[in-house]
């Protein structure tokens, strides 16, 4: 059985707002095995991104407070570590790809200077070594002409290339865990597939475990082995991708799946008047990848209520 890499137990993150207390994360339990891929899925406001930021201890506001729970990474509770200790883990053992390729890079600085700064801060290497690692990371994510890209500004790159830069920065320290927060947001369908395939390849070749934060069940079916469905700060359903997609147990999971449009209809479905066809188009269809996405014995699944 694979070793547990990340074990989130009863995590609670609260925000103190002018309108009162908001329980953004309300008792979340998650497990990721070494080399595994867990999809954390839910609609906007479900608490999935806040869960990722809490794990990284990057909430960034005094109004936010971790009210309870544990985040065990390799057996150490990240919530009890000092700021210096957490800083040492970020980038080297845990990497994060933040949401939004367009806003993830500072347009005032060249890509290379930003990558080198991040690498030096987290790894404590020389500028020359950081430059070498930046090139190595860009090559790892399939960036064409990486030396030229280091000299470029973010506006000179396509959306897919900017996302590859962000992934390269997160992978520059060869982390054991990568938290990817909606990495395909605002990208067209073709580029989305390329980014998802890139993450799958990184998982297979480097053995990097991935927490994939997304609202897209198509992404979950394609790349994840297990999935946790979040609503109102809680995990309402959790299991293998195949089990959840073929036999959802919670009405919310079912409603999310019904919101996925279908591109391919049968002749019978096409005979239905377009005004009524929406019912067929919303009916969930499990992609073929879902049937093969689960690796028996790789994941320990804990049901969340």
TrEMBL record:
It is found in: Cell membrane. Residues 283-305 are annotated as: Disordered. It is a peripheral membrane protein. Gene3D superfamilies: P-loop containing nucleotide triphosphate hydrolases. Its main location: membrane. GO terms for molecular function: ATP binding. Residues 6-257 form the ABC transporter domain. Keywords: ATP-binding, Cell membrane, Membrane, Nucleotide-binding, Transport. Transmembrane segments: none annotated. SUPFAM superfamilies: P-loop containing nucleoside triphosphate hydrolases. The keyword Nucleotide-binding applies. It comes from the Bacteria. The keyword Transport applies. Pfam families: ABC_tran, oligo_HPY. Belongs to the ABC transporter superfamily. This is ABC transporter ATP-binding protein. It comes from Arthrobacter gengyunqii.
